[in-house]
Amino acid sequence: MSEVYATRRARLRDRCNASGSASALVTRPANVRYLTGAAPHGAALLLGATEDLLMYAAPAEPPPDTPSGTARPDDALRIHTLSAPGGDPAVAAAECAAAQGADSLAVEEHHLTVSRHRAIGSVAPHLRLADVAGAVEQLRVVKDEEEISCLRVGAEITDQALGELLESILVGRTERHLALELERRLVDHGADGPAFRTSVGTGPHSGRRRHRPTDRRVEEGDFLSVRLGATYHGYRCEIGRTFVIGTSPADWQIALYDLVFASQRAGREALVPGAAYRDVDRAARQVLDSAGYTEGLPGTTGHGVGLEIDEEPQLAPAAMGKLDACVPVTVEPGVHLPGRGGVRIDDTLVVRPEADGGPELLTITTKELLAL
């Protein structure tokens, strides 16, 4: 893996050099991990003029979402731990850049606080600070097969946890209880932890985007919508499904489910290399628009996943750009009817060319409308 991380850092260095900066400072945790293999708490990565350096404060702590021992920095990278407690690795890294003779330093202005930016300027006043912007995030969009393998395992864990829950008795249990059980099952099956806060919505709460579980209990005739995901070796995936509690769904529930299912299928089928982000969104959105569900639709149909649960690209009406192969994304349309409930169907897929079978579906729990 050392060669992988070295290649990633070289690609970032090339971008910085092209914009006139010989050195770069990376502080966003997911970006540090992408370039080094680990992101100890508060770590900063310096791509220096003479050598690269990963710096963090003592004592080093594992990231809060990663169990100890599962992520280790690239062995080929020099690591420096600050001896003084309370020191800022980013400021110390900027001093090192100046000591290496750099005259400019590209920083992640979208991540640095104003006070941190000022502190860097004060310790290295002769350094010209430039903005690396979202260069690392753009490098992260296309995944290699090792990254996709981590997402695939995470999806398998997520499917397994959800499948086991569906085999249990649900009526009378609270949304909060079900969400906690799902998160426990994720860990039991080998996940680092949940990829995000698990959402369970019942009855009038079902289908709500990012609903936070309450003490409402599952009742006969409810829609039950679930959104969860596992983190595996730092990579995050998600799945969303909607079910009916009871022996048979009502006519309005069948009609609404079929509509959202058609929307989600249209979005999935639009995932081909070269497709515009906005066209994938349009494919899913127009199914719902044509049925009169224009108001209240989410701003995006889906988004990229990886070291973060919501990263580039964004599948949205105004999004610019086109899909490449080996880009994992979600397709997650939904409709919520206030006071009645709704439907969400959410999958994680990897964009693949038609010659390779088209989009690879990672989350395979059935999308049939099950009565539980």
Total beta-strand segments: 19
- How many distinct helices? 9
Largest sheet entry = 6 strands, mixed
Shape: elongated
The mean pLDDT is 93
Order of helices and strands: HEHEEEHEHEHHHEEEEEEHHEEEEEEE
Reading side by side through the largest sheet, how are the strands ordered? 4-3-2-1-5-6
In helices, the fraction of residues equals: 25-40%
Q: In angstroms, what is the radius of gyration?
A: 23 Å
Stretches where pLDDT is under 50 for at least 5 consecutive residues are 62-69
SS-based class: alpha+beta
Tell me what portion of residues adopts beta-strand conformation: 15-25%
Distance from N terminus to C terminus (CA atoms, Å) equals 45 Å
